[in-house]
């Protein structure tokens, strides 16, 4: 099991996305967040099909933080059941992975 | 092997992407599709380099459906050899993963 | 370990992204690159939080090329420590995976 992951979260608004991203970076739960604006999301919910505008958040962090990240993101997120999923980073530039590691550890 | 995946498909037009997405959701082959508009794709095809506008589709489903999803997406897709790839979801919010599971199982 | 990966790189400018993409495709280090424009990146760097506009590059290639790809992308990239990470492709349309394979092997 590799120690680093990307975490994907979708949300309906760029400013909410930026707020959540900033809180998670400040709490050192993630090293960075890329927010892709204006994606179109098509999904089924309680038997109906929806076609809505969302943002896609792509976070980079350490796998052992996923539990805490999940809890914090869920608390900040307006949805009842938000998309919060993680994919394993298989390889990466060593200096970049070190930066993810340092950015997600408390200073003291 | 984890039971959930994201599936990535690229296509040259947003309305075609939305149509394919809706069919796959209605058929319960995927729970949801995020469509990223106006990406720029640079690739080589039969010895020539192309630089074209596409959309990126990110689908969430169960891994055991990938064969059926691949067949259905290929049939609906205008390209000779479309990009249809899957990445394993390593972890996720349990309620969200349950929703993917329920949304991709026939009602009766 | 599956033989194919997607590689994610972020960069601050679309034309730089397109240039790097073209060089990597010409060198047969990647089969294709999708560039997502105008993403918003929130991250911490040397104790400060930044909120900046970037592009997201998603490349498809063979895993055994990641070392060479990493070196080439780092040389072309303006950042001191660029994001260069790889995720394993778990499954894919066989014809598409073959195309990735052929597109990343020297002709002679």
From TrEMBL, chains A, B, C:
Molecular function GO labels: copper ion binding
Stated name of the protein: Uncharacterized protein involved in tolerance to divalent cations
GO biological process: response to metal ion
Family: Belongs to the CutA family.
SUPFAM superfamilies: GlnB-like
Short name of any one Pfam family annotated for the protein: CutA1
PANTHER family hit by this protein: DIVALENT CATION TOLERANCE CUTA-RELATED (PTHR23419), FI09726P (PTHR23419:SF8)
InterPro entries reported for this sequence: Ion_tolerance_CutA, N-reg_PII-like_a/b, N-reg_PII/ATP_PRibTrfase_C
